């Protein structure tokens, strides 16, 4: 049994918050009220909700059911406080402690003055030693603090935390090598490979193996530090030769320079680590991926563990004429159209309209689409997505890296400013419950490759959003775009390969009908 | 056949790495802190231009006024009573929920902006489509062309104590984004005509890039609602001296807007409230190279040097 005094604290608490407890955002939820109460009065010793509920029920018994609840006994919700009854109990309890106060109480009406006194008293009590500043006091409960509210709103939900964890388990870790930031190492290694061996990287096409053999032979020329580092990290070795003019700095094109032999700017040789990351044995890898055991299966396909990834499929065709129903429906579509970016052409060229008029609605009932756009086509791309019935949900920015893993800042890559990124618009159709949200960030940092070839990271990001076994389509694809789990169409892929029997059947029918006509 | 798409390659896959380590892909960019590393000529150009801009810049001006109706009134009075015109107008900052659209629809932009003139408008990913509509509406009358879409990326969400450049990411409220947001968009628009080849007194092209990354350095300088880098792009591109920045919302003290030399900043809670049209204009005439040639309107320019002309990237001369 508790001391009667202990219930005074609850009265103080009720008076402090008054109707706030039953209003938004608390709405009488006892778990929330418990939290607030225990933060304000930790000395009451009700650390868990069970203790607190029995404490509140005892209090309610004492004061003749001043607290009115609704809802189940498991999760009761406070809907009203009968203040008269609380006051009666207060008078009785305070009376046992402080007689003169009762007399005052009895003679006067239920005074607001007294309430105020109690409020100031309790506030003063809070401000007593150890001294707590007003701001700290405010940030203790989320009832009065905007910052706290903001934090709550920004906090990750359990759903998104679990989702992220699950995807982490399902995604194979592709750890790549780090880059050595020690310029000294690079100079030492460059010296050991090029100067001493008489090799000229601009003329001789040095293989990684050869470079590492040379390093081993010239071990005496290097510090042990640099040599060791060359085994585990990537180094960019400056190549000095007769043409190189150090005052000019790095070449804008680096390893893609067309005049490598005569260029006076500085170029680099990428020395990859000799100890490459060894892949795990195939069977071990499989185990790690497919037997991941978890109970969080929201958004998973129920045949997830028995499914096999479809081998790469592709159809060589003219997209403008190809009937999309042959392909079926897809969860994700990636498109990298060859935009007509001739600035001299008037705004609405036929090609833009052509793209806009593609019957994209035949390919997807709900799902995501990703559309690569550049410069002027940014606006057309945004318009096209809306026309096709998508909501633009995100924009992925590809930060393009050069050989040295730096952004491209020179070389007049744009009309007004240099261009060092590209945009990938992401559209969402319908309200698919099966997509995984906010696992990846909307920035891809990846190196440039052949002209207009886009980073492969996109495929994995799409996999993480729609699931590995979902049907995925790439339009305007080329040979290097075909991959397991994906269907690639376009006039630049070689031949046609189909594994899905239903698609094969419809494709044959389409071919036949075309041959007849 | 299990996972052919995921090879153990020698290349880095930073998106994959992020899933496993939580290290932001953008933090792997090696020149984030020193963007022009390896390009001494470009670095020199930036230094020279910064010096010139600073030498000829007016003192920092602030105009404290409530958004957005009073702002419009004030701007109208600047135009009609004092004949004020600006060459570079930046609108918005890295805060959500600004009254950018009501401001844009009512802004006396045609009179306020010189010709040629440049507009920098901030937007989040979800605001872009509305922005597209605004730029095609009656007020703008399609007189402004979008030249570039700049992207600003923050290096780390947690940097600066969680306060700073990050687009607000309310996990529970928004259902639409499929990715975590890290980017801000800034539209660079132009009105009137400039020729890249011949108008080098007005603009310098290709000095900066369309991507700016918040560097750890700038995090140490303390949070700011407007990254220095974005002011610098405007200053490096346009060689004119009248720059106005309007932010149509309160910013608060967590992520303040800092007064900047060479700019008039209009903001409901800017710390400095010293703007006076006549003082400003007087200072403009003192600090700028005034050019009366060709057009009737005088141009207020930042004079350039032969060295800058030598170093700046140029279009191939035919």
From TrEMBL, chain A:
Reactions accelerated catalytically: an adenosine in mRNA + S-adenosyl-L-methionine = an N(6)-methyladenosine in mRNA + S-adenosyl-L-homocysteine + H(+)
Keyword Transferase among UniProt keywords: yes
UniProt keyword Flavoprotein present: no
Superkingdom of the organism of origin: Eukaryota
InterPro entries tied to this protein: MT-A70-like (IPR007757), SAM-dependent_MTases_sf (IPR029063)
EC number, as in UniProt: 2.1.1.348
SUPFAM superfamilies, alphabetized: S-adenosyl-L-methionine-dependent methyltransferases
Family listed: Belongs to the MT-A70-like family.
Name listed for the protein in its UniProt record: mRNA m(6)A methyltransferase
Organism: Scheffersomyces spartinae
From TrEMBL, chain B:
Molecular-function GO term, any one: mRNA binding
Keyword presence, Nucleus: yes
Highest taxon of source: Eukaryota
Keyword terms, alphabetized: Nucleus
One annotated Gene Ontology cellular component of this protein: nucleus
Main localization category: nucleus
Protein name in the entry: Karyogamy protein KAR4
């Amino acid at each position: 049994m508790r001391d009667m005094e202990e219930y005074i604290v609850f009265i103080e608490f009720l008076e402090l918050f008054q109707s706030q407890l039953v209003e938004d955002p608390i709405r009488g939820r006892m778990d929330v009220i418990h939290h607030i109460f225990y933060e304000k009065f930790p000395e009451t010793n009700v650390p868990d909700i069970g203790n607190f509920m029995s404490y509140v029920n005892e209090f309610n018994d004492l004061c003749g059911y001043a607290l009115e609840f609704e809802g189940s006994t498991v999760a009761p919700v406070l809907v009203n406080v009968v203040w008269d009854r609380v006051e009666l109990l207060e008078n009785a309890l305070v009376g046992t402690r402080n007689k003169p106060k009762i007399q005052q109480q009895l003679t006067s009406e239920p005074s607001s003055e007294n309430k105020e006194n109690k409020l100031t008293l309790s506030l003063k009590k809070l401000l007593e030693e150890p001294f707590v500043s007003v701001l700290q006091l405010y940030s203790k409960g989320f009832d009065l603090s905007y910052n706290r509210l903001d934090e709550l709103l920004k906090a990750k939900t359990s759903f998104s935390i679990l989702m992220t964890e699950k995807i982490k388990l399902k995604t194979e870790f592709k750890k790549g090598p780090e880059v050595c930031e020690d310029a000294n190492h690079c100079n030492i290694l460059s010296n050991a490979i090029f100067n001493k061996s008489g090799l000229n990287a601009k003329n001789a096409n040095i293989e990684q193996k050869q470079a590492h053999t040379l390093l081993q032979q010239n071990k005496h020329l290097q510090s042990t530090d640099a040599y060791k580092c060359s085994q585990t990290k990537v180094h960019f070795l400056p190549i000095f030769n007769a043409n190189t003019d150090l005052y000019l700095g790095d070449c804008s094109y680096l390893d893609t320079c067309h005049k490598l032999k005569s260029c006076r700017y500085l170029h680099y040789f990428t020395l990859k680590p000799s100890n490459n990351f060894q892949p795990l044995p195939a069977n071990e890898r499989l185990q790690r991926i497919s037997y991941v055991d978890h109970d969080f299966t929201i958004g998973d396909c129920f045949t997830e563990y028995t499914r096999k990834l479809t081998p790469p499929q592709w159809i060589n065709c003219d997209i403008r004429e190809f009937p999309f129903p042959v392909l079926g429906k897809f969860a994700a579509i990636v498109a990298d159209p060859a935009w007509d970016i001739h600035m001299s052409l008037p705004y609405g060229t036929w090609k833009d309209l052509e793209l806009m008029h593609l019957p994209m609605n035949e390919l997807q009932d709900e799902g995501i689409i990703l559309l690569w756009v550049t410069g002027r086509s940014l606006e057309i791309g945004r318009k096209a997505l809306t026309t096709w019935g998508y909501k633009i949900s995100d924009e992925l920015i590809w930060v393009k890296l050069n050989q040295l893993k730096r952004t491209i800042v020179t070389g007049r890559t744009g009309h007004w400013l240099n261009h060092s990124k590209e945009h990938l618009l992401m559209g969402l159709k319908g309200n698919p419950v099966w997509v995984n949200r906010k696992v990846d960030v909307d920035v891809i940092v990846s190196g440039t490759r052949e002209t207009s070839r886009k980073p492969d990271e996109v495929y994995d990001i799409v996999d993480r959003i729609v699931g590995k076994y979902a049907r995925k389509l790439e339009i305007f694809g080329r040979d290097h775009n075909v991959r397991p789990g994906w269907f690639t169409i376009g006039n630049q892929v070689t031949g046609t390969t189909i594994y899905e029997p239903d698609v094969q059947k419809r494709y044959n029918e389409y071919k036949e009908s075309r041959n007849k006509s | 056949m299990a996972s052919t798409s995921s090879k153990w390659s020698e290349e880095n896959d930073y998106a994959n790495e992020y899933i496993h380590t939580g290290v932001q892909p953008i933090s792997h960019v090696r020149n984030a802190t020193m963007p022009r590393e390896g390009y001494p000529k470009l670095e020199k150009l930036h230094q020279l231009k910064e010096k010139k801009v600073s030498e000829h810049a007016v003192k920092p001006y602030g105009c404290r006024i409530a958004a957005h109706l009073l702002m419009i009134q004030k701007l109208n009075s600047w135009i009609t009573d004092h004949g004020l015109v600006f060459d570079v107008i930046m609108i918005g900052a890295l805060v959500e929920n600004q009254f950018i659209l009501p401001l844009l629809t009512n802004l006396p932009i045609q009179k306020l902006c010189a010709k040629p003139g440049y507009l920098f408008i901030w937007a989040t990913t979800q605001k872009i489509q509305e922005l597209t509509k605004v730029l095609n509406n009656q007020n703008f009358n399609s007189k402004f062309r979008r030249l570039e879409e700049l992207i600003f990326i923050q290096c780390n969400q947690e940097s600066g104590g969680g306060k700073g450049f990050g687009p607000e990411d309310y996990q529970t409220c928004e259902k639409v984004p499929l990715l975590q947001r890290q980017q801000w968009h800034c539209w660079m628009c132009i009105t009137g005509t400039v020729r890249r080849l011949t108008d080098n007194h007005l603009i310098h092209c290709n000095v900066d890039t369309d991507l700016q990354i918040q560097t750890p350095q700038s995090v140490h300088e303390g949070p700011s609602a407007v990254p220095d880098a974005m002011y610098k792009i405007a200053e490096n591109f346009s060689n004119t001296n009248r720059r106005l920045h309007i932010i149509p919302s309160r910013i608060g003290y967590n992520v303040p807007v800092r007064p900047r030399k060479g700019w008039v900043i209009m903001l409901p809670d800017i710390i400095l409230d010293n703007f006076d049209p006549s003082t400003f204009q007087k200072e403009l005439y003192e600090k700028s190279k005034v050019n009366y040639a060709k057009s009737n309107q005088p141009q207020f320019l930042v004079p350039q040097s032969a060295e800058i002309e030598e170093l700046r990237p140029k279009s191939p001369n035919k």
